[in-house]
């Protein structure tokens, strides 16, 4: 059986299998080599994600994933007293929830070398969020942004600190995207969610981290022989060797 790569997160992960999505691009890269599974839950924060751990990553699994990305924080960083305060998770609890997720993954005895990658939330364009709200609600749109880039940056920093503390790899998406001029509209469709260009940044960063570890798609074998290796007269020869 092919190894599995699980993408665990909120809507930024759930939407990643849409056309131009980073999850779809990753699945294409690992085609016939590993199965990329999307476990994204729009609107979820790390507090709610904890309820899913034993369902998505059962400790008695005979085949846990070889790699897992953990991409939460955009909703945890929602501000108290604003429209999305229901999703807010205090920053220290956010860090502790990330610890619980990572420790749960490390408990899977059959996959002690699982590659775990924490991804920070992307930056937030407050003007983009406000424009999106006005497009939906007109004059009834909220007057104050439910998220700010400054506060989201604090959660990104907390994500990185937790990754370093636990000895797992991380992607600083919040900083990476802001290295480009015009990132607000180039990478974000509504001030929060990703454009195709934003998805490409995530894909490139995940691929970079996977390659730096031990999970380069180019170096992985196919699950079954490439068609060029199959003899038309004696096809069984190509299938006599195990491919994985």
Describe the structure.
There is one protein chain. This protein is an alpha/beta fold and 244 residues long. Helices cover 38% and strands 10% of the residues. It is built from 10 helices and 5 strands. The protein has helices spanning 11-14, 22-29, 46-49, 53-56, 91-106, 126-137, 149-166, 173-177, 183-186, 196-212, and strands at residues 4-9, 35-40, 67-71, 115-119, 169-171. Helix 2 (22-29) crosses helix 10 (196-212). The longest helix has 18 residues, at 149-166. The chain is globular. The mean pLDDT is 92.
Structure at a glance:
This protein has 244 residues and is of the alpha/beta class.
Strand order of the largest sheet: 2-1-3-4-5
Radius of gyration: 20 Å
Structure class = alpha/beta
Helices and strands, in order, run as: EHHEHHEHEHHEHHH
Q: How would a textbook summarize the main sheet? A: 5 strands, parallel
Low-confidence stretches: none
What is the residue-mean pLDDT, rounded to a whole number? 92
The share of residues in helices is 25-40%
Shape: globular
Number of distinct helices: 10
Q: Beta fraction of the residues?
A: 5-15%
End-to-end CA span: 8 Å
Number of strands: 5
Topology at a glance:
Elements: E1 4-9, H1 11-14, H2 22-29, E2 35-40, H3 46-49, H4 53-56, E3 67-71, H5 91-106, E4 115-119, H6 126-137, H7 149-166, E5 169-171, H8 173-177, H9 183-186, H10 196-212
Helix pairs in contact: 2-10, 5-7
Q: What descriptors fit this protein?
A:
244 residues; alpha/beta; five-stranded parallel β-sheet; 5 strands; globular
């Amino acid at each position: 059986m092919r190894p599995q790569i699980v993408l665990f997160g909120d809507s930024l992960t759930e939407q990643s299998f849409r056309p131009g999505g980073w999850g779809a691009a990753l699945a294409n890269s690992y085609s016939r080599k590993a199965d990329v599974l999307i476990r994204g839950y729009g609107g979820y924060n790390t507090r709610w994600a904890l309820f899913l751990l034993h369902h998505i990553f059962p400790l008695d699994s005979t085949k846990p994933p070889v790699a897992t990305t953990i991409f939460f924080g955009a909703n945890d960083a929602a501000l108290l007293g604003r429209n999305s305060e229901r999703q807010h998770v205090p920053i220290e609890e956010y860090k502790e929830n990330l610890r619980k997720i990572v420790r749960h993954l490390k408990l899977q005895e059959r996959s002690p070398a699982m590659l775990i990658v924490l991804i920070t939330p992307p930056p937030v364009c407050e003007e983009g969020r406000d424009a999106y709200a006005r497009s939906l609600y007109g004059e009834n749109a909220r007057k104050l942004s439910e998220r700010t880039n400054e506060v989201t940056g604090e959660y990104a920093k907390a994500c990185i600190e937790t990754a370093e503390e636990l000895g797992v790899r991380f992607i600083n998406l919040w900083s990476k995207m802001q290295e480009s001029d015009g990132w607000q509209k180039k990478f974000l469709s509504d001030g929060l969610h990703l454009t195709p260009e934003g998805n490409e940044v995530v894909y490139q960063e995940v691929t970079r981290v996977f390659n730096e570890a031990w999970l380069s798609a180019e170096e992985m074998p196919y699950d079954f022989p490439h068609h060029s290796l199959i003899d038309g007269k004696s096809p069984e020869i190509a299938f006599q060797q195990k491919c994985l």
